[in-house]
Design goal:
The chain is mainly alpha-helical. The chain is built from six helices and three strands.
Length: about 180
C-alpha cells in the first residue's frame, strides 16, 4: 500500500547543451583553438607524468605534487573538452542525465582536488624554505601519499552529496543547459 503513495523522482532522459550562447555560428571555428590547446595539454601532461615516473631523481615531494597536478589537469580537460568539441563541430549537444551527473562530478571534484594539490605544493615549499634540513623527514613518501589521498578524499566528499541530491531531485522545467558542459545552476 505504501508503494502507491510514494513518488519517484522524474529525471529527463537527456539534457541539451547549447555551447556558447550567441556564438552558435562561430562555434565551428572556435573549436579549433580548443582542440589545439587540448592536444597540447594532454601531450604535455602525459610527457610530464612519464618523465617523473621514469626518472628516479624526480621522486621527491615537489615533483610528485607536480605529477598529481598534471593528472588532475588531464582529468579536468578530458571530462569536458571532448563533449565541447562534439557540440561545436557536429552539433551533438544531447547528453544523458547520468552522463551529465558524471561530468558534473568529475569537473567539480577535480577542481577541488586541484586547489588541494596547490595547497600541498605550497606546504612543501614552506617546509623546504623554513626547515631545509628536516624537509625530507617531514615530507616523506608516506606523508606525500597520505596528503594526495586526503586531497582526493576531500574533493570526493565535497561533491558527492550534491550529485546524490541532484539525482533525487525532480526536474519539471526545460532540459536546455546554456553551457558547453554540465553545470549545477
Amino acid at each position: 500500500m505504501s508503494s502507491l503513495n510514494s513518488t519517484t523522482p522524474s529525471q529527463p532522459p537527456s539534457f541539451l547543451l547549447l555551447g556558447i550562447p550567441g556564438l552558435e555560428k562561430e562555434q565551428f571555428w572556435i573549436a579549433f583553438p580548443f582542440c589545439i590547446m587540448y592536444a597540447i595539454a594532454v601531450l604535455g601532461n602525459i610527457i610530464l607524468l612519464i618523465v617523473i615516473k621514469t626518472e628516479s631523481s624526480l621522486h621527491e615531494p615537489m615533483y610528485l605534487f607536480l605529477a598529481m597536478l598534471a593528472f588532475t589537469d588531464l582529468v579536468l580537460s578530458t571530462s569536458m573538452l571532448p563533449k565541447m568539441l562534439a557540440i561545436f563541430w557536429w552539433g551533438s549537444g544531447e547528453i544523458g542525465f547520468v552522463s551529465c551527473l558524471v561530468q558534473l562530478f568529475f569537473i567539480h571534484t577535480f577542481t577541488a582536488v586541484e586547489s588541494g594539490v596547490l595547497m600541498a605544493m605550497a606546504l612543501d615549499r614552506y617546509f623546504a624554505i623554513c626547515y631545509p634540513l628536516r624537509h625530507s623527514s617531514i615530507l616523506s613518501m608516506p606523508v606525500v601519499t597520505a596528503l594526495g589521498n586526503l586531497v582526493l578524499l576531500r574533493g570526493v566528499l565535497m561533491v558527492s552529496p550534491m550529485c546524490f541530491l541532484l539525482h533525487r531531485k525532480d526536474f519539471c522545467q526545460h532540459r536546455v543547459i546554456s553551457h558547453s558542459y554540465c553545470e549545477h545552476m
